[in-house]
Amino acid sequence: MTKLVRTARDSVVVFPASRRPTRTSANTKPLLLCFSHLRWDFVWQRPQHLLSRAARRYAVVVFEEPIFDAAEPRLDVSERPGGIVVAVPHLPQGLAERGVTTALRNLLDGFLSGRSAPAVLWYYSPMMLSFSSHVRAPVRIYDCMDELSAFKNAPRMLPSLERRLFARADLVFTGGRSLYEAKKGRHHSVHAFPSSIDVGHFASARSGDRNEPADQAGIPGPRFGFFGVIDERMDIDLVGQVAALRPQWQFVMLGPVVKIDPASLPRAANIHWLGGKAYKDLPDYLGGWDAGFMPFAINEATRYISPTKTPEFLAAGVPVVSTPVTDVVTPWGDDGLVSIAADAASAVAAGEALLKRAREPWLEKVDRRLATMSWDRTWADMTRLIDAVSAAKARFEQRSGTALQAVAGGTIAEGAAHV
User: Fold this and answer.
1) N or C terminus: fewer CB in 10 A for the chain?
2) Which fold has domain 2-196+375-413?
């Protein structure tokens, strides 16, 4: 059974009975409304790490990209562990671009109707500004975790919408140092927050009493592993070349295949494509690997990436070979924590060196570095910036007599003087 709510604009919000949000103390928290192109239930990565921490302070709602599978527009709203609310628009197929924008705006307005004004608007995708630009909040954030315009099938409107988002944002966070260098001249308050780490979670891979996953148990060693999304950012030819040069090595490849044809993946007896795995199960896989392999292609899509898996491999105690991605070379390669290889021959040489290297001196250096970073620390640093913006705006409103005001239909607009 589902609960249907008819909104002021005649769109339908659907609450599945099995996952209907409950009224808890979290509903009294200020609202953080996040617009994300990444599905909450897809791969546990930067948005999940940050927003799950934000949920201790805010009522976090993640508004996702639409799915085109419905007879009429509707919004499925459900709750995840930790109090995260996920809103997924479902739209009819065949809608023109303007029709998609209108439908999404109506669903968003219906969702916000009767709610308190958002305290924070948090964007991962500039594309979602097209239907949400009218929504106001004291703090607007663009967490730029990737150069999305360089990805395969990037929307043509993305660069212009990103310019609009830069103009509206109070704060811009970047997912790595190279992305910070590329964006810092486009906004007055850009801050680099490279990929961080949940050390405790991945350090459990070092335990001798872990459970060996059934689909990995029968794979002999030595094992070289990868985990993450398998898409145009992976140099699949390199994977095949290294596997051919060392047929006695086994390559355990974990992750969903997206935007590329699965038939294009190299096939060999020593390459094992095991599919996507839950975040909670990753330490059990990593604990059985002799080394990690990050075979990123060197192209426009990887020019600014800062792979979250780099410190995750290290926390698990797994030495890793990576292609020369800028944010891996500096600081991880420069500091001798990750081996860098530009081609198959050098990857094989690096892998052989890792298999022979004593682990303890390397692990001591790894642990000293990881002790300086965590997702908790990253969120705390972000919070200080958010609070500073909020306080500055509150002082301005006190002096000028302006304030955020609610308008008919439940959407939020600013007072006469734009802050």
Assistant:
1) N
2) Rossmann fold (3.40.50)
Give burial (CB, 10 Å; 0-12/13-18/19+) of 363. Answer: middle
Provide the token pair at 346: 């050098």
Tokens found for residue 323: 């292609």
Q: How many whole angstroms separate alpha carbon 292 and alpha carbon 300?
A: 23
- 3 state DSSP class of 240: helix
Q: Record the pTM.
A: 0.85
Residue in the structure block whose two tokens are 């500004």: 129
pLDDT one-digit tens code per residue, 206-241: 987 778 999 999 999 999 999 999 999 999 999 999
Residues in contact with 413: Cβ distance below 8 Å, sequence separation at least 6, in sequence order: 134, 136, 405, 407
Q: What phi and psi values does residue 85 have, to the nearest 5 degrees?
A: -105, 130
> Residue 190: which H helix or E strand, with range?
strand 190-192
Read off the pLDDT band of 415 (50, 70, 90).
Answer: very low
Residue that the structure tokens 């065949």 belong to: 94
Chain-centroid distance of CA 73 in Å reads 26
Which of 169, 146, 64 shows the shortest CA–CA distance to 107?
A: 64
- What pLDDT is recorded for position 399? 82
Domain boundaries, the chain: 2-196+375-413, 199-370
Provide mean pLDDT across the span 370-378.
Answer: 96
Element (H, E) at 139: strand 139-144
What's the CATH number for 199-370? 3.40.50.2000
